[in-house]
Structure formats: C-alpha cells, structure tokens
Amino acid sequence: MKILFIGYGSIAIKHKISLEKKFKKVNFYALRHKIDYENIDGVNSILKENLLNEKFNAIIVSSPSVFHCDQIFELINLDTPILVEKPLCVNRTQWNKLYKLSRKEHPIIYVACNMRFNPMITYLKKYLEVNKSRIYEVSAYAGSYLPEWRPNLDYRKSYSSIKKLGGGVEFDLIHETDMLYFLFGEPISSKIEKRKISNLNIDSNDWALIYLKYVDFSATINLNYYRKRAKRTIEIVREKDIIQLDFIKGTIVNLKNNKILFDAPKDSMKLSYDFQFDYFFDCIKNNKVPLNNLKEALKVSDLILNPNSN
C-alpha cells in the first residue's frame, strides 16, 4: 500500500496513524516542491517531477483549504483515488471550476467529513429513521477557542486565522453543515451571516450563523472561534420529544424525560477516522462512487457560498 500526502500537517498525522492501524504494510510519501526539504519520520519525500514515476493506491490532500481546488486539477491526471480534506473549496470561482469537473469522468474523489462516521451521528441517524416524529426545529452549535486548537502552533500563523488561505469558521467548521445535510438531506435554501467580532488577532471570520430552510422545518448553525469553554451540540425539537446530541459530554439525551439514549465510546473521534478509511478503501476496492463525492460535496459547499450570503 502506497499513500501520497499533499500537505503534511496535524490532520495528515492523524490520517497516518489511522492508516497504520488499518494496513500491516503501508509506505507513506509527501509531495515536496524543493530539494532542501526537512525529513519527516516514517514518510518518504517525493518531488513533483517524479510523481509520474510512482503508482499510488490513494492520494490524501491535506493542505491549507485554499489550495484544494487547484491541487485536485493537478492530481486527476494520475488516475488515482483522491481523499481531499474539507472544505472542498473556499470561493465561488473554485466552486464553478469543480462543478464543471464533476460533470466529466474522473477518478474517485471523496471529500473527507469524518463526522458522518462518528458513532454518535451513526446512532442519531438510525434513531431518527426508526423513531419518526414531526420535526419543528433543529439547531447546531460549535464554539471553541482557536488559540487552544493547536498547542504547538501560534494560532495567528495557522491557516484558520488567515482569510486568503481559506480560514474562517464557515469553512473550518463545515462539519456542522455537512452533518445536517447528512441527517436531513438537501435544504430548499440557505442563508449565511458571517463576520469577525472578537479580539482574536486574525483576519478571518470568527463567527457565522447559517440558516437552512427545509419543507417542514428550519435549522440554524451557530459557529465561532472565541468560546473559551467548548460547546458542540445538535438539538432537534420534535412533536414528541427533544433530542440533544452533545459531542463534549459524549451523550445523546431525550430532554423530555432526561433519558440517555446513547453513551459514546471515549475514542469516538478516533473511530470516525478509522471508519471513514474503511469506507473510502471499500469504495476503491469495489469501484463505488462514494458518499460526499464531488457532486455531493459541492452541494454542501454551495450552502455557505450561495448568492444570499454576505
């Protein structure tokens, strides 16, 4: 098994750990653009001009968000399955380019949204399908303190803080938008309000409010970089109950009677990466078009890039 990384940061390290558990023997490569590169333990380096001399089983694009679109176009000629980190794109120009690509034949492209494979989301989706009730409203919240995200890195230098690199909560925390899409399907319309409002030393948006309109209910997604006590929840108000998923507590509770419906495994987040790779490589093995493929990921991206946004 040979895996090529495009960009090797914190998320690539997580992927490497997950893949080492999955495969007994795997060789990792990282694309380099100059000869005087620093060595990475356990990872081979390869220059761009040598890519055609190697055959990889999969490519993982884990670079800053703004580069994802162009890198996809550079890589499709290798005719190798691609896992690209979220978000797929960060502006309408990129979206339009990728939309044209989605209408043509191309290798497997899967946009990584591992939260779909989190055991809590798996349980919630099945619960809603089996225990049906009219939905009145849905609200998702994800707020945490950006300076604490990457302890070994000055937050001001991370791509999250820099707008031109694709930073901003609407892109960084697109998981929340993707999870609601996964749970409830494509909404009729969406609106987004976003801005920089805290005293964090960044130029990207640190707050966003996304509104999704469905046929019978509406959903809101509140995102921020500045909450010093992390909160990450999905609450579903229905005719017969109120279901609250709390990622921090690791519980799904029926608030009507305070009954705990699901206690998540402590390693749920790590499992989500493992399960995601199980799914991705199963699609490769059986030549299946994956969920969150190029077309579907573009629909999710469109919800935060739509003409009604400001």
Commentary on this structure:
It is a single chain. The protein is an alpha/beta fold. It has 2 domains: about 1-115, 3-Layer(aba) Sandwich (Rossmann fold), CATH 3.40.50; about 120-265, Dihydrodipicolinate Reductase, domain 2, CATH 3.30.360. The chain is about 30% helix and about 30% strand. It has an 8-stranded mixed β-sheet with strand order 8-9-10-7-11-12-13-14, with helices on one face.
What does the overall shape look like?
Answer: globular
Average predicted confidence as pLDDT: 95
Radius of gyration (CA) equals: 20 Å
**Biggest pleated sheet:** 8 strands, mixed
The first-level CATH class of the largest domain is given as Alpha Beta
Please give the CATH architecture of the largest domain.
2-Layer Sandwich
| Spatial separation of the terminal alpha carbons | 45 Å
- Fraction of residues in H or I helices: 25-40%
* Uncertain spans: none
How many β strands by DSSP? 14
* Number of spatially distinct domains: 2
The helix-and-strand class reads: alpha/beta
